[in-house]
Amino acid sequence: MTGQIVGLLRQLNQSLEHEGREQMKRLDISPSQGLILHYLLSQKGRTVFSTELHRQFGMSKSALSTALKGLKQRGYLVMTTVPGDDRKKGIMLTDRAQEAEKQIREGLDRQQERLCRNIPEPRLKVLEGILHDMIRNMNTQESGRNDT
Question: With a threshold of 0.90, does the pTM exceed it?
Fold first, then answer.
């Protein structure tokens, strides 16, 4: 294998990030923050914790913390304390996040439409499965791995 897959995925990621930045500019958030908000909005008012977001997106804890801090500073979410565990913080959306829902959803829909244009549904289903496999591969630590 020549590494073309990695190069192509990086190129695709750069294109998605660029387009995402343009779409989220009016909300003053990053593409990653837009994805986090979209996920939180899909949870319909239930309290979500950062550990769930970490599992969902595979972001490092520091990157996730930075994204959440930015969303909080911009008024999209608040952190709530959990009775009995002062260290654990629940994430709740504000009215501003609810108002941004349509714009976030439409931006992600436009991005997916552009990304998948002219690709038959059966190929998209196969691609989706392969991408899930790749993510699982990257998130699974190899047993007995030698880093030397």
Answer: no
- Give 98-147 pLDDT, tens digit per residue: 889 888 888 888 889 999 999 999 999 999 999 989 888 887 754 334 44
User: Cα(115)–Cα(136) distance, rounded to whole angstroms?
Assistant: 22
- 110 contact partners, CB below 8 Å, separation of at least 6: 23
Q: What is the per-residue DSSP string for 50-115?
A: HHHHHHHH---HHHHHHHHHHHHHTTSEEEEEETTEEEEEEEEE-HHHHHHHHHHHHHHHHHHHHH
Place of tokens 């192509």: 8
Give the C-alpha separation, 63 to 45, whole Å: 24
- Dmax (CA) for the chain in angstroms is 53
> At which residue do the structure tokens 């709530």 appear?
80
Give the other-Cβ count within 10 Å of 22's Cβ. 12
CA-only gyration radius of the chain, Å: 18
Q: Cα separation of 138 and 60, whole Å? A: 13
Question: What SS3 class is residue 5?
Answer: helix
